[in-house]
Amino acid sequence: MDTPLFLLIMALSSFGLVVLYSASAGSLTTLYKQIFHFSLAIGAMLVIAQIPPYVLRRFSPFLMLFGIFLLILVLFFGSSSGGAQRWLDLGFVRFQPSEIMKVIVPIAIASILSEKTLPAKPVPVFLSIISIAVIVLLIARQPDLGTSLLIGASGVYVLFFSGIRIQILKNNLLNLSLIGSFIAASGYITWNYLLMAYQKKRIMTLIDPSSDPLGSGYHILQSKIAIGSGGIFGKGLEQGSQSQLNFLPEHATDFIFAVVAEELGLLGVLFLFVLYGLIIYRAFVISFQSEDNFSKLLGASLTLTFFTYIFVNIGMVSGLLPVVGVPLPLVSYGGSSLITLMSSFGIIMAIRKHKTPRYLQQ
């Protein structure tokens, strides 16, 4: 176990429990449920931390195929809720396979690209891009565009850390122009043929939330009021008018950052940022100190994915990004996302524990 990372995670988790208790208006039931979730998540982290990274690399093809199989099952036999078909109900448990893919995709792509020398050759890069595209499309069909893009990003981060260069033409100016044209064309096709009506509405609401203050713009407007009213020192725990009077929707889950800003103010937000920054720094140190490419790529991509979840949630709550339903890591109420996140930290701790993998010792 990496003691600094473990203590930082526990500190942030404790802070999250305090904020959650306040956001739920002192509900002990919600607090006890979240403590139970944390117990399961920490248990998963400790177990996964004992698994050497070379084992994950060896079984990565089977993990990827298993994940794709589950996503296909969701399309045909998944349970529906809120207009989306994202869950598998096994009777004794109901889970979301896309959560598992948040860990499987970085493992699989890191395995494909982790050759002895980097950057990777064209064939592994092409295979990685195809694999990421298949996963993204399957999850987007549920529909869950936000999760599909975040999972796709976790795979792209592995490509980024592997050192690949996108060079279609030798001339840099023409190369940038071609890539820019491709992005513009992709945006046009996505907007006109791929995005659903409610997804387009979220983007338009981002531009002008006041156009529908009691409808699609309600979440963002109430969140901004909560964030702005906190000031420097905040109103105090359980004293936030927006959260305690239920003006702020989803204040214990996706919009809990607004509760932090309203009740603990700028100082509380800065304290949260410091904890996040220290965790990210320590995780990157562990990843880059690893002695094999697979562990470096996997650890760095999981760390950057963790940062992405933080950035997207805070951007969403602050009105800088569309509302996509991403919880604030280690603070928002929830079980499946918390277990997935702790599993990622378990992998990073396994990288620290098994610094010199067995396949390099043989």
Strand runs, count: 3
Low-confidence stretches: none
Shape: globular
Sheet having the most strands: 3 strands, antiparallel
Query: Mean pLDDT, as a whole number?
Result: 87
Description of the molecule:
It is globular and about 55 Å long. Helix content is 69%, strand content 3%. The longest helix has 33 residues, at 256-288. The protein has one domain (3-361). A three-stranded antiparallel beta sheet has the order 1-2-3. It has helices at residues 3-23, 28-48, 53-77, 97-113, 122-140, 145-162, 172-194, 197-207, 218-229, 241-244, 256-288, 293-317, 336-353, 358-361; strands spanning 79-81, 84-89, 94-95. A hairpin with a 2-residue loop joins β1 and β2.
Q: Could you give the topology of this structure?
A:
Blueprint: H1 3-23, H2 28-48, H3 53-77, E1 79-81, E2 84-89, E3 94-95, H4 97-113, H5 122-140, H6 145-162, H7 172-194, H8 197-207, H9 218-229, H10 241-244, H11 256-288, H12 293-317, H13 336-353, H14 358-361
Antiparallel strand pairs: 1-2, 2-3
Helix pairs in contact: 1-2, 1-11, 2-13, 3-4, 3-5, 4-5, 4-6, 4-12, 4-13, 5-6, 6-12, 9-11, 11-12, 12-13
Features:
362 residues; mainly alpha; three-stranded antiparallel β-sheet; 3 strands
Summarize the structure in short.
69% of the residues lie in helices and 3% in strands.
